[in-house]
Each structure stands twice: as C-alpha cells, then as structure tokens.
C-alpha cells in the first residue's frame, strides 16, 4: 500500500501538500485525544487509590486547554473539603 502511495506521489507531486496536511491533522487530533485521556479530571485510570480525582483539584488548577475570560490564579476556594 505504501508503495502505491509513493508511486502516486511521484507521478502527481501536487498531492504532497494534501498528504502532509491530512497527516498533520490526524496527528494533532490523536495528540489532543491523548491529552484528554491523561489530563482531564473526569477520567479516572486508578479507581482503587483515587476513585474521585475531581475532588482533589485546587480551585486555581487550569485543566481546560484554553480559557478565554477566566484567570485561574485569582480564584478562591468556594467548596467544602471531603
């Protein structure tokens, strides 16, 4: 299959940017899914030692990828300890 793709790219060099951008988009989407699975507090990989990881987050921990109007360093604790 890779040999066929290589032949097509040699005969049609205008396809090279298409493969480049599609490959880059697929790579970025896989990296974002991996980030969501590893860094999101809603995902619990270890249920025995930390069954509720969202309860142990401090209020100034930024777990979102991009925050438009929120400055997480200035937030105060507004919930009880469990």
- % residues in beta strands: under 5%
Number of strands: 0
Compute the CA-based radius of gyration: 22 Å
Q: Would you tell me the overall average pLDDT?
A: 80
What are its keywords?
82 residues; 41% helix
Summarize this, please?
This is Cytochrome c oxidase subunit NDUFA4. The chain crosses the membrane at residues 12-34. The protein is mainly alpha-helical.
How would you describe the overall organization of this protein?
Belongs to the complex IV NDUFA4 subunit family. With 82 residues, this protein is mainly α. The protein is built from two helices and no strands. The chain is elongated and about 65 Å long.
How does the SSE layout of this entry go?
Blueprint: H1 2-11, H2 16-39
């Amino acid at each position: 299959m890779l040999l066929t793709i290589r032949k097509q790219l040699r005969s049609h060099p205008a396809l090279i940017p298409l493969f480049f951008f599609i490959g880059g988009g697929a790579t970025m989407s896989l990296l974002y899914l991996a980030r969501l699975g590893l860094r999101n507090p809603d995902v619990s990989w270890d249920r025995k030692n930390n069954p509720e990881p969202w309860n142990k987050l401090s209020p100034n921990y930024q777990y979102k990828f991009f925050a438009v109007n929120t400055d997480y360093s200035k937030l105060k604790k507004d919930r009880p300890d469990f």
